[in-house]
Amino acid sequence: MDNSVRIRAAVCHGFKEVLMVEELDLRRPGPGEVTVAVSACGVCHSDLTYWSGAWGGGVPAVYGHEVAGVVEELGPGIVGISEGDHAVVTLIRACGRCRLCQKGLPALCEQMGALPLSRNSPLTTVGGGGVVQGLRTAGFAEKVTVHESQVVPIAKHLPLDVACIVGCGVVTGAGAVLNTAGVEPGSSVAVIGAGGVGLNVVQGAVVAGASDVVAIDVLAAKLAAARTFGATCTADARSGEVEAVVTTVTAGRGFDYVFVAAGSVPAVEQGLGLVAKGGTVVILGMPEGMRASFDPEAIADRGVRVLGSKVGSVRPQVDIPALLGLYEQGRLKLDELVTHRFALDAVNEAFTAAASGEALRAVVQL
Length: 366
Ligand SMILES: [Zn+2]
Ligand SMILES: [Zn+2]
Hints:
- This protein is an alpha/beta fold.
- The protein has helices at about 45-50, 100, 115-120, 160-165, 170-180, 195-210, 220-230, 240-250, 265-275, 295-300, 315-330, 345-355, and strands at about 5-10, 20-25, 35-40, 60, 65-75, 85-90, 125, 130-135, 145, 150-155, 190, 210-215, 235, 255-260, 275-285, 305-310, 340-345, 360-365.
């Protein structure tokens, strides 16, 4: 039997160049690996960042890491996943055994780079040339071969074109609130940046029982969206509105929790200025190489905690079913996030819709 299957995928041959949908060979699953037929893959800002070259990596590459699909083939030694299962596939590849995995932090796995898929991409050109498996998934393709830790079986009645976005954007935002920060009921919460991740911080804060959820952004359309996702108040980041909201919402104390979901230095510095004494600032995904300035004395004297949140401190097998359960109960909006859908052949239009901010989430369907 052939050790690889022929698939169609959206290939990046050069940063910022048009993606080409072409045939590639995908290695079939080895021990501890799974091949999933892709039904849908959301476009995340990390895909755009890699495509732009800002995070380095090689080309040719296939991006896409918010996948839902149907399990097609299991490698040897898989327990708990069956052929035909519906599944969400995430970029969190974890050994399950190292110290950080055992502490419940698989996104920080110490052995991830030692796993066979991390050392050898399962993708090649038809001629046998190397192709990078972008974000450990390469989801803008008919099929993916990933590590078993990346595959989360889900109920078959869930819509795959909506479930896919839980795999990164939703869990990054909601997980920052529920896992990383552990926001308590009655807390005041501010979110800087009301894009795809920020809206899910808003939703997570509502689920956590926050009394006030303030969204801060520079675009009126994003602030309007934040209100529909549960923000109790919004403020334009570049006006005096933010100071006014600190006064009216928190009696001038500042917020118990401030989430920085806008990848910019001014957003981080603004966040440190909005937090209450004893409060917590959570910094979500950031571009590389930035430096922010802050007053360490103020952080120490005011007892402020500053936390980093990588993919919402996600534990995929716990959090993805939990978030989909909230969706089924009507407590988490997912249908409303998927505003744009594209065929694989229209993947470049999907990137444009995501980059422009026109789409809350653009999803490529296969
Ligand atoms: Zn590990
Ligand atoms: Zn992502």
